[in-house]
Amino acid sequence: MIDECLVVEFRVTGDDCPLADATRKTGSSVDARPPQRRSDQNALLRFSAGAGPELAEVLDADDRIRYLHASHTDDRVNFRCLSKHPCVVHTLSDAGFMAESLRYRDGIETYTGAVVGYDVLEGVLEAAGETVGVTLERIYPLGSEDDEVVARRWGFTPAQEEALRAANELGYFEVPRQVTAGEVADALGISKSAFLERLRRGQSALFAQVFE
Fold first, then answer.
1. pLDDT tens digit sequence for 116-155
2. Which of 32, 143, 175, 176 could bridge to 102 as Cys pair (CB 3.0-4.6 Å)?
3. 130 DSSP assignment
4. What is the largest distance, in Å, between two alpha-carbon atoms of the chain?
5. Cβ contacts of 145 within 8 Å, gap of 6 or more
6. Is the pTM of this model over 0.85?
7. CB neighbourhood size of 61 (10 A)
8. Strand, coil or helix: what is 176?
9. Strand pairing partners for 5?
10. Where are the chain's structural domains?
């Protein structure tokens, strides 16, 4: 039995997959589950994004996407579709990477998951080296108490997570601040009051776990 399990995070740039292309064109952010590859090499995609028609319109016009379906819940849109385009995450998964979550923002992809043992990690890194723009961002041992880290169950909603991530990436938490609350809200396509509400609730949920 292998005792060592590692949490790893990859950053992917320069990929031309449909979701990366769509977020690059629309400036939107997408949270996705690991794609399921069928025997005919089509991939089943499930992902969500902030409300707004731009992402759906771009995806619907992409001839690599088939059977696009969208459903609305609160301030999010949940999508399901088939994709004929090979995903970089499949290359890493074939080598032993167990993807747990995928995030696309402005054409940049972030994969978070696990690798069982350093021998498997070596194979995954070799596969990453042969793929476009894949960088290992983080790696650390997975303990039993950390199992929820992989699944990213932080106790806040996808909308709150999106607000926290956008605020962090755009420099809202820097000293001095690089952007205003209104500018972050504009980037998310929501009102300033909605952004601040999500930010406060997300921070509250996160701090409650950090300082538990």
1. 888 898 999 999 888 878 988 888 777 544 444 444 445 6
2. 32
3. T
4. 52
5. none
6. no
7. 10
8. coil
9. 116
10. 5-151, 158-210
